[in-house]
Amino acid sequence: xxxxxxxxxxxxxxxxxxxxxGLRSGDTVMVHAAMGRVGQLLNGPDALIxxxxxxxxxxxxxxxxxxxxxxxxxxxxxxxxxxxxxxxxVPPFDTAASRAQQMNGILPEFVxxxxxxxxxxxxxxxxxxxxxxxxxxxxxHLQDYGYGxxxxxxxxxxxxxxxxxxxxxxxxxxxxxxxxxxxxxxxxRVLRYEVPFAGEHGTKWRFIEEFDTSEPVLDGLxxxxxxxxxxxxxxxGNGRHGAIGRAPSLLVEAGPMCAFAVCWLERAATILxxxxxxxxxxxxxxxxxxxxxxxxxxxxxxxxxVEPGRRSxxxxxxxxxxxxxxSGSADSLxxxxxxxxxxxxxxxxxxxxNVAIRARFMRExxxxxxxxxxxxxxxxxxPGHAPENGRRPQRTMISVPYDGQERYPSFQFGADxxxxxxxxxxxxxxxDTMTPWQIAFWFVSSNxxxxxxxxxxxxxxxxxxxxxxxxxxxxxGG
Length: 478
What we know:
The protein is 35% helix and 15% strand. It has 17 helices and 14 strands.
C-alpha cells in the first residue's frame, strides 16, 4: 500500500512521550489538549486517553475540564434570568448526558464518555475524571462558586496534582480560575445567572453565582492575563517541556502554579487599585505604597508578564531606570507619561526583577571580561546584539551586557580560547527573537529535552544540544 501521509502515532508512542515529559505512575493530572496538533493517531483521542492511563497506572487519575455545551447565557435578561420565550427550549443540565463544551476541544467529551468516568455536578465548572480518585474529585461540587475551595480544582491541588497542556494554548489553563477565586482582591467580577437542572420530576431552575471566568476577574487586567501568568511561571524555570505526539507540550505542578497565580493576581490588583487612586502610590500613615521599592523578590517574580522571546525597547528602558535607581543615579523610576499608564508599575516591577535575576546569574556563573577573553587568544569576539539593516548578525558566542560592559560565560570556550563549535551551531538555531540574556539563561537552565540537565552540562553531546535548541522554535501556546 502506498504511503499517502505522515506515519500514524500509536498509543505506545504517546506512552513513551508522556513518560519522557515527566508524567508518573500514581499522578493526578488535569489535561488540556489541542488534538489537531498531536498528529494522526491510531484510534484517535482514545489512544491518548489510553496512553495517559497506562502511564498513570491503577493509582493515578486523569481529569478534564468539561464545562457544559449550552449557550443559553446569550438568552438572558440583565438580571441573569432566561427570557420567557426561550425557557422551554433550553435543555436542562444532566450530569450523565449533557455534552462537554465544544470550545474546550474534543478530548473532554471523550474522557466524559469513557467507561468508568465520573463527572462533577456544577454545570459551568464541571470536570470529568477517570481513575483512582475520580469519585472523590467529582463528588460534592458546589453549585455556587464552583472554582473555589472543595471543588475539583481545589482537590487537584490538594492531591499534589499536575496540569498537562498538550498543544493547548496556555490561556486555556482552567486551574488559574481557582486562583481567581482564592486571590484576596477587591471588586472581582461576579456573575449570577439562571440554570435549568434535570431531575426525577422534570426541570428545576436555579440561580448560580460565581466569579466571572469569561472575562478577566478584575477590571483592568489584560485579556490574556492567564497566558501571561503561565508564561511568567514557566519563565521562572518551572515546568517541563516536551512533545506529545507532534504537539509541543507543558507539564506543571498544580500547587506551585496556583500559588504563583494567586500572588500575581494580588500584586496586580494592588498596582491597578493604587494607580486608580493616584500616582505614584497612596499615602498610608508615614509611608507610600504601590512603589517598586515596596516589592519583595517573591512578588516581583509573580508579576512578570513579559512573554519569553520578546523584549521591547520600553522594557529595556525600564530595566536601565531601575538599575540606575538602585545605584543612586536616578531620582525616579517613571516618567510623566508612565504615570498615566495603570500598568506602568508592573513594567517597573518586571525590570526590577530582571535586575535581581541578572545579578544572581553574574554571581553564580563564571564570567569573563572582554580583556580576559582576548587574553585567551579568541579572534572572534562578537557581542552580536545590535541588528544590522534590521537583521541580527550571525552570533558566534554567548555574551551579555552588564554594568556597561560585555561579559562572556567561561563554559563556552575551549582550550584554544575559541568558542566551542557547538556554541556557534546552537546560536544559529535559537530564535532570533531571543535576547542575549535569554540565550544565556537557556544555556544554564534545566532542559527536559536533555532529560533535566542544563545545556552547558551537555556540551560534549552536540547533537543533543542542537536538537534541544531546535525545539525552542516550537509553538507551545498558540
